[in-house]
Amino acid sequence: MTNQNVVVPDTKSGISLPMVRLSGSSIFPATAQKPPTAPGTGGGGCISLSAKKKLLLENLEINGGGGAAKINSWVDSMRASSPTHMKSSSQSLSEQHQQQITLPSALDNFDQIMEASRGKQIVMFLDYDGTLSPIMRTTVRRLATCFPTAIVSGRCRDKVYKFVRLAELYYAGSHGMDIKGPEKGSKYTKGTEPVICQPASEFLPMIDEVFKELVAKTKLTPGAKVENNKFCVSVHFRCVEEKKWSEVAEAVKSVLNKYPKLRLSQGRKVLEIRPTIKWDKGKALEFLLESLGFANCTDVFPIYIGDDRTDEDAFKVLKEREQGFGILVSKVAKDTNASYSLQEPTQVMDFLQRLVDWKKLAFQESRM
Ligand SMILES: O=P(O)(O)OC[C@H]1O[C@H](O[C@H]2O[C@H](CO)[C@@H](O)[C@H](O)[C@H]2O)[C@H](O)[C@@H](O)[C@@H]1O
């Protein structure tokens, strides 16, 4: 991976071989801001690239194996991303600030981004948790009148749709494994039927089974929450007392051991079980570009905005295609394939609004 070691100002196809990757997740319920966290810092706001890679490797998980050591490593990693533990850092905040370098701000470099998009069709991709908020609905609606727009989330598609409630968007839920385009009649729908893609559909019964087993196994642990995200299952630790985390991790591991076709990824206070297919948010982006008719085009300019480690797959695709840009939403140090940054969802909203204004102006000028 050709990741940049990027630090932003302080204050987050087909069936094939199992993928091993750490999946960071975001903390952004429909109604609440997520707390600041640092990726894989055992307590500090910033760590070196090699230390982060080590942590990533420790967190990599294929199916089964590892026993107690594995569970400890999941729990340690979960602990490391906890804001409480960040406070216990041996580094002072001012020391953390000194280490920081800035990924160019997408807002400060708005004109430059627009210049790069000249003559190309902008297509918008937005992560949900940690990137959008319910108050942005009007802005997203305006955005979708200007550009094809997709929401790409780890949550199940129906849930994201319930939060956003805009029929004119594309939705890619379950980390891109459940894609549906706008209904017919939408400006961007090519055929008569909405685009649908569910590359992991054969896993549905298995995921349901796993969901039930995890609910049963964690029901005695206060605060544990198992979320059925249709093509993946998320087990949340957020409300579980820390001393009980290994109990939950043990339950996850014991279930996962029975399903060699499933793998585990990890986010902030969440463990996720998903199919071992080679499909992620990057693949979803490629699929959507293709369905919009931009498969082999040079005149397309995708902009993907996200805060989650799983969004890195999409940033990477853009980098490899040398098309458009990834914009990372983060206030803390991260290795990323994004090209620009925005610090928080309010900045995302400003950026989206500027895009809308820019488009309207360009339209007016074209009519003069
Ligand atoms: O791909 P995203 O849209 O960024 O979704 C990532 C995950 O978001 C949700 O979890 C996050 O929010 C929870 C609060 O609602 C929080 O407790 C958790 O720590 C966060 O990771 C969602 O519940 C997950 O299923 C998504 O994968």
UniProtKB/TrEMBL annotation:
GO terms for biological process: trehalose biosynthetic process. Its EC number is 3.1.3.12. SUPFAM superfamilies: HAD-like (SSF56784). The keyword Transport does not apply. It catalyses: alpha,alpha-trehalose 6-phosphate + H2O = alpha,alpha-trehalose + phosphate. One of its GO terms (molecular function) is trehalose-phosphatase activity. Keywords: Hydrolase, Stress response. Pathway: Glycan biosynthesis; trehalose biosynthesis. Removes the phosphate from trehalose 6-phosphate to produce free trehalose. Trehalose accumulation in plant may improve abiotic stress tolerance. Belongs to the trehalose phosphatase family. This is Trehalose 6-phosphate phosphatase. It comes from Linum tenue.
